[in-house]
Amino acid sequence: MRAPGLHIFMLLCLALSAANAPAQDSRQSVTFELELSKERLGVNERLTADFVMNRDGDNFIPPAFDGFRVLMGPSQAISSSWINGVRSYSKTYSYVLQPLSKGQLTIGQASIEIEGNTYKTSPKKVTVTDAVSNPNGAPSVDQIADESLHLVAEVSRADPYLNEPVSVVYKLYVSPSVNVSNFRPLDNPKYNNFWSQDIPLTRYQVEEGLFEGKPYRYVILKRVVLYPQKSGALEIEPLALDVSLEVPTEKVDFFGNRIYGRANKVVSAGQRTIQVRPLPEAGKPEGFSGAVGEFTFGVTTTKEVLNASESLQARVSVSGKGNLKLFQLPRLTLPSSLEVYEPEFSESVRTTIAGMQGSVTEEYTIVPSFQGKYPIPSLSFSYFNPKTEQYEVLRSEEITINVEEGPVAAVTPPATGQEPARQAVQAGEQFYFLKLRPGLQARQWTPFFGSVSHLAWLLGPLLLIPLFLVLRKKQKEREADFEGMRIKKANRLSRKYLSRAKTALGDKEAFYVALEKALHNYLKAKLSIETSEFSKDKIHSLLSEKKVKEPTIAGFVSLLENCERARYSPFSQVQMEQDYQKAGEVITALDKEL
Description:
Elements: H1 2-26, E1 32-36, E2 40-42, E3 47-53, E4 58-61, E5 68-83, E6 86-99, E7 103-107, E8 111-114, E9 117-120, E10 124-129, H2 141-148, E11 149-155, E12 166-174, E13 179-187, E14 194-198, E15 206-211, E16 214-228, E17 232-236, E18 240-252, E19 258-268, E20 272-276, E21 293-301, E22 305-306, E23 312-322, E24 338-340, E25 344-352, E26 355-368, E27 372-376, E28 380-385, E29 390-395, E30 399-403, H3 452-480, H4 482-503, H5 508-527, H6 536-545, H7 550-565, H8 573-593
Parallel strand pairs: 2-10, 22-30
Antiparallel strand pairs: 1-3, 3-6, 4-8, 5-6, 7-10, 8-9, 11-12, 12-16, 13-18, 14-16, 15-16, 17-20, 18-19, 21-23, 23-26, 24-26, 25-26, 27-30, 28-29
InterPro entries: BatD
Protein name: BatD family protein
Keywords: Membrane, Signal, Transmembrane, Transmembrane helix
């Protein structure tokens, strides 16, 4: 009795799942896309274009395929499956195409009707190059590297104003299928007609992004902020890199893993041109000094009330965002009865990828000589704002300095800002009398000959002769021991470079250069060999003659080989620490065995 009931229950479940499956499928969005087997090919190669949809449709209309010869197609392929009650459907129209000429060709839009709606694919561009030697074979390692590596210079804007900041970010895009093992710059760009500031990078950080619509990994290599100093078309020279990378091939190893091939490629970011706009002449204020940005301006003093002969500081300051290091501050003009020293310039400017921001200041030290009221007149500062594309003028407030105690001038300077003539100071406080009777006494004369000083000058040179002979003998002994001096010098250099290698841990090039020099000078001290004799075979034979054990010799030679390999291969922090520790152990062992 239970078996027929169970059978009926299973049939009901299958009917419900079949009824529910089309509803799930109907909720999926319709897609209709063009997929290309390659986007870069030789003029004698073939290209497969697949028009793929996830629903069945009618009235498929292919593009005209301008610039191509259709060798085959259209061929249809349909794929349908059920997974966990969800239907998966795919229908493909395929064409095999042959390019007719070199250049950049475009495959246009195809269209199809699905459930009463018309859908179209996006056009795609194909780059056709010179004929290749093996058109039907698998792409070479160099071809894959060319398609997988791109260096791009991203410029923040192509039409800045004169002295407006422009940021340039250099990014290296790498396809997920390849691995970059090392890279080095070949030619850094020169920024002629620009004021430039590099924005340092603490470390390289790999990020995910899109390049020409495809997923890539990228790393920022260099960031720089430029301030154009000349209007017109200005060139930014390219950055070039030599990149070592590992590229997957069509071959597999015994276990079925993909075999990677090594390749070296030189990539360049390309030369960029920006069109620099001159600052407008209309509305340019008098005394404009070239400031471009957004600023605030002010004049302040440390005191407004003081006594004569005391000092105060007057500060002229500009702060904000813009070319803070590339313009002159307005000069402070003061009455002639005030003693004014040359201003001290100071700056607190931070440069980011968006440009300079901070403040610049000139500080004047002022010392009044007389009582009175002295005006510090209002100053004006003008700048060009690239956001509003207008000039703006800022003015400071007039400040009055009140000198309360001190000498009184014949005429007190007015507080109107007009410059008075310097007045003569009242007599009685400005003249001093010299003392006519200084009270000098005559000194008794003593003869020089026969005195203690005479005898010291006479016998002193004779006493120095034995000392000179002793020093000369010591010098000859040191010169005769030339080999000993050379060994001591080599020992000192070995310790010096070994210490330098320890401080350079983490910096591959500096560490292995210092370590190699340390090993070099150690051998010069111990074995008396010169640089011309510095080869691994020579070292092995000399150490063997000195009865050094074979493991110690092998360890020393392997360290030298690591120093050589470090110039061409990447080395990790752990490897450098191991090599430094091994160098200490090998040198200690050599000291004992020699």
